[in-house]
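Box 3.1. Reading complex inputs
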Amino acid sequence: MNKIWLVTQREYLTRVTNKTFILTTLLAPLGILLFMVAVVLVMSTGSDKNKVINIYDPSGLLGGEFQSRDNLTFEFSNKPISEQIELYKQEKINGILELPELKDSLASRYVYKYHSDDQLAMDENMSIESAIGKKIRNYKLKKLNISTETLEKIDTDIVSEPVTILKDKKISSITTVVSSVLGGIVGYAMFFIILIYGMQVMRSVMEEKINRIIEVLISSLKPFELMMGKVLGVGLVGLTQISIWLVLMPLIYFIGAALFGFNPEGMENLQQTNLPAETMELTSKEKIGQVFLEIKAMNWWLILPLTLFYFLAGYFAYSALFAAIGSAVGEDINDANSLTFPVMMPLMFSIYIGFSAVNAPDSSLAVWSSMIPLLSSIVMPVRLPFDPPLWQIGVSMVSLIVFTIFLVWLAARIYRVGILMYGKKASFKEISKWIFYKG
Amino acid sequence: MNVLSLQNVVKTYANHVAVNDVSFDVKAGSIFGLLGPNGAGKTSLIRIITTITAADSGKVLLNGQALNSLHPNEIGYMPEERGLYKNMKVGEQLTYLAQLKGLSKADALKQLKYWLDKFEIHSWWHKKIGDLSKGMSQKVQFIATVVHKPSLIILDEPFSGLDPINANLIKDEIFELKEKGASILFSTHRMEQVEEICQDIVLINKGKILLYGDVNQIKHDFKEHLFSVKYTGNGSQDKNISGFDVVSDQSNELILKSNGSQTSNELLANLIQKGINIQSFNEILPSLNEIFIKKVAASNE
């Protein structure tokens, strides 16, 4: 036990004090922040020049009304196009928007012209189109004798109201959305964490084998102790990195918000401008408040410890397998790719099943996969926000524990032989023989 | 008292017998040579002794006890393929390896101070192994092997890759450790080193023992009763001496083979009587190298 702890300490300390680790851990949230700032800047600037655009609207389609935007100034002018083109040539204006008369009041297609050698930016085009669209819609409504009140009566806001029968819990339509997003994020995070740190365990095993220090080490402690120490040490590094990020992310976010003078609401407004009108109504402040309430109402006392459990069990199972693979690789690091394939398979499978479980958390695929070891370590956390039955969680946990212990044992059997084998990488046939080697 | 005792040890791998019924003893406070050509089973034997693998059958006793999980702390092992963490600092690395051998951190630091001072390399403490030369990292490796005061030190080709100065340094350390009571199992196929250092040897080939015993005794057992006489002058004298055949007589060196009826003293007396100016006289003992080649070739037939 003492020796496992020594290995754990070394694996942990050499990684945590490594410059690359410190840099990536600290810079990753900063990088995300910079990326967000960049996105905000890019989106809010659009085009940097101030443009003056004349609108030629002889039929009065827009009714002399069109809002100027940040750096676009619209002016109505009914001078003939040829005269206005002279103005363009004198660089007094940047373009002419020509809106021909709407001849057929029920036409499904309307073409307007934009005279200029420079194209308008995409969002500029879109806002002009939606403004014209609205005007034409109103124009058509008038022609067809439909009042706006009548129209509002036609549109129906459809809201589903889930009602539980046996469970004593209030759920709303938003519960499902929140659970899906939460489940998706957790599943994805689990996948990447298990993959990244599992690979680190593998590389660490390969390093010792290629360095040839392995023989010195296992004349001091048992291969199993070395493997477990390694898995634990790298796992602790993972937990450290994630906790640092969990603390840093909001911190940097708020610092950034204060420094750059944008607030979360501003971001939302920005996104909303690009969304069609219907969705805009859905993401009103009220609904956001409701989302937070839903998140608060989640059974965190169950979800958090269980997610941690699935992460640990999944990490142990996979990283033990990665350690076994690392031991079977020869001198060439590139050999690892073909050997990792069988371990990557269940990992990839489970993330795909996880995605489908987000949509259908009670489908038989999701239910069964969340109880099958290896798959369950990712699929079950995805299902947790949907309140799966306790017996399923129980079966899933017990089977995962049993299978993880089995896998660690199996990996240790392979590892103890593999680390002493030099030369080219082992085939799967050879590896399966190692399991049964004695001594 | 034997520090190590192997009794009928057998180890079989899937396709071959690596160690076939091997028994030998290593006396406490001695330097013991484990010899054999490449692939003879030396590494398999060492891995059994260091508890890296287990024997299929037979017994291995360390200080009179069957090998157990505490024994690795009493053994220091320097493998032929040296290995250290390249990106770890000398001090941290040695402390870690010493702790893995059961030393407390304080003891490890104390011992390391002694050894680093002794090799005058204390300034390396913060250097990374990757930045050291091969000879320098060999010294670090040697310290890692002996820092926990093992009662049995196993050195696999300890001088390979060392320049003569460093090789001598390590050789002196080996003798000093022996004086302090440690036993050294020295695995090599460099025979001249064995003759110089070891008291007892075991020669194995194809997993079997070919020879086992005291180095001098073995040399006597294999001697061919040849005598070398170096002399001055033109050497025109008659050299026929009863009981001896002349094997060769070239460049003032006479080689004679005894048929066993006369002693070396009688040979000398006869030579002096014949008026030969003797410069040197000695019995030719076979080198371990010759014995090694002869025995291995015979066993391969």
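In summary: The radius of gyration of chain B is 24 Å.
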